[in-house]
Design goal:
The structure is a single chain. This protein is an alpha/beta fold and about 575 residues long. The protein has two domains: about 35 residues, no CATH class; about 525 residues, Alkaline Phosphatase, subunit A (3-Layer(aba) Sandwich). It contains 14 helices and 17 strands. A hairpin with a 2-residue loop joins β12 and β13. The protein is globular.
């Protein structure tokens, strides 16, 4: 076989260079050709979990059974210092555009737009047309483009993934909701919207379960296009383990009694596992105090049983997710596609510690009271449960807080990448800073697809990320050494440069002022080093201000500080 398959394919000079580089990955050259169809370029499979905690899966120190991801980690490279955005849709906007969430239109989530920002392009609440998307570019480069699962980047017809470059889609347009066929939303103002190839669906099959059906649809799409010579880009965007926590009963039973010792014990166990993996310094023997969490020993027997059941359901969702990913891998192997596929897996943000009452419309508890949350029905149809801050913090140790915050617990996520064919990255770790905006440039380099200057007649802003291929191929240890990355979402702010970070959180989650942290020595962001290193803090603060100006970050003047306090039950 020829490198990258078809010898008659007219390669550009850039492609020839890419072929030569990728050929170094295997002793006899990189092969990208299947039995059924010649493929000039590798397939790309992107798998995103929803609200999965940093240490939930076994390759990152978890106790939940994830044999498929274990094997993927053995075949690929694990990234311990991969950063995303604090919540779902901003991460997904940055992922698909290779740009900052504000530039991509997700300066806030759509659910929280208010009059002062509604006409600003950075706060559109959907993916805007001043950026190109991965599927738009990949499709123009000759790829099939498929998506199943969560979109959360606009609900209108023209905002659907089918109109942003995906050839075939089966998607849930919202941020979340029931994983069953009943289509019950997260809160009363919403209605769950599913679309297939752009067309809205009015009902789902009786046996619908989100993870199962998203997997089925993706396999169907890939199978339907395997007979031609085109490679595929497939985006498998699961909604597990996002709340409401739902899982098949037989999977919940597997974890019965597993979490009876509570979240304090689980957090310590996870911390020791992370130390054994070398992901946390041996000197770290604590994680940040979280005023939202009660000590497990202070709970009553019934409270313990309910909370333990909730974590059993969460673990079952992750277990079932792993099994479903295995179904896709089995299909690819059976069709001689697996070895020719670049596979990327990660979580979109940290574990979710917000209560269900935090969703707009749920504060009074009326909607939530309409579910049957008796102990034996928790996690089954017509239930609505969540992990709460206790389990979310255990999933985030030793980091501070979790989803929705610009602390490490909110923006640091597990990532595994498997290159096509045999390669030198197998089983290795990389500990350098990487960012969600690096995904798109990586895919485009693999696909030999330059980022366009114009899409549909409109100029688009170039991505800010960098291709990860040099790291994956062992040519470089890091991509961003000496550079910095800014953050702002809901007035949660941060700037990271190498091991240094400044952070701003409102009271009572933080001091309300900027603090300075050394992440290498203090991954939990416990110690404020502002007084010891004032020049470093001033430098990073100036860099954040430049970031805010360049990305047109709007000053919300405390609006979201107040909303956060209300959502977590700590404000008036």
């Amino acid at each position: 076989m020829m490198l990258f398959g078809n010898p008659n394919y007219r390669r550009s000079a850039r492609t020839l260079i890419a072929v030569a580089i990728l050929g170094l990955l295997v002793p006899h050259g990189y092969v990208a050709q299947t039995a059924d169809a010649q493929s000039n370029l590798p397939n790309i499979l992107l798998i995103v979990a929803d609200d999965l905690g940093y240490s939930d899966i076994r390759p990152f120190g978890g106790e939940i059974q994830t044999p498929v991801l274990d094997q993927l980690a053995a075949e690929g490279m694990r990234f311990s210092n991969f950063h995303v955005l604090p919540t779902c849709s901003p991460t997904r906007a940055a992922l698909l555009s290779g740009n900052d969430n504000h530039v991509a239109g997700m300066g806030v989530m759509a659910e929280f737009i208010y009059p002062a920002i509604e006409d600003l392009p950075g706060y559109a609440g959907h993916l805007v047309d001043q950026v190109a998307t991965i599927p738009e570019v990949m499709r123009s480069a000759g790829y099939h483009t498929y998506m199943t699962g969560k979109w959360h980047l606009g609900q209108q017809d023209e905002q659907s993934p089918f109109n942003r470059g995906f050839e075939k889609t089966f998607t849930m347009m919202n941020g979340g909701g029931s994983h069953w066929a009943d289509m019950r939303p997260l809160s009363p103002p919403q209605s769950m919207i599913y679309r297939r190839n752009g067309e809205r669906l009015t009902e789902l099959p009786d046996d619908f379960y989100s993870t199962k059906d998203y997997t089925d649809a993706l396999i169907e799409f890939i199978d339907g296009g395997k007979g031609d010579a085109k490679p595929f880009f497939a985006y498998l965007s699961y909604t597990a383990p996002h709340d409401p926590l739902h899982a098949p009963a037989e999977y919940i039973k597997k974890y019965k009694g597993k979490y009876d010792d509570g979240w304090d014990v689980l957090g310590l166990q996870r911390l020791e596992n992370l130390k054994e993996l070398g992901l946390v310094p041996a000197s770290v023997n604590e994680f940040p105090a979280n005023f939202m969490i009660r000590k497990w020993e202070t709970l009553g027997a019934d409270e313990k049983r309910r909370h333990a059941r909730d974590m059993e359901v969460y673990a079952a969702m992750v277990d079932y997710l792993d099994m479903s990913i295995g179904r896709v891998f089995d299909y690819l192997r059976d069709n001689e596609l697996y070895d020719d596929t670049l596979i990327v897996f990660f979580s979109d943000n940290g574990a979710n510690g917000a209560p269900a009452t935090a969703y707009p419309g749920n504060a009074d508890g009326t909607y939530l009271a309409s579910f049957n949350n008796e102990i034996d029905n928790r996690g089954l149809p017509n239930s609505f449960i969540d992990t709460g801050p206790g389990w979310a913090q255990a999933s985030s140790v030793p980091f501070k807080l979790f989803k929705s915050f610009t602390t490490q617990g909110g923006i640091k996520a597990p990532m595994i990448v498997k290159l096509p064919g045999e390669n030198t990255a197998r089983g290795k770790w990389n500990h350098s800073f990487l960012h969600i905006t690096d995904i798109m440039p990586t895919f485009l380099e693999v696909a030999d697809a330059p980022y366009p200057e114009v899409v549909n007649g409109k100029s688009v802003i170039q991505p800010i990320g960098k291709s990860m291929l040099p790291v994956l191929m062992g040519k470089r240890d890091s991509l961003h050494r000496g550079e910095g990355m800014g953050y702002e979402l809901f007035e949660m702010k941060a700037f990271i440069q190498d091991e240094w970070k400044i952070l701003r959180l409102p009271v009572p989650f933080g001091s309300g002022e900027w603090t300075l942290h050394n992440l290498k020595e203090d991954p939990g962001e416990i110690l404020d080093l502002s007084d010891q290193h004032p020049e470093k803090k001033a430098k990073l603060l100036a860099a954040w201000q430049d970031y805010a100006k360049q990305n047109e970050v709007f000053d919300h003047k405390g609006r979201f500080d107040a909303l956060y306090k209300k959502a977590y039950g700590v404000g008036n």
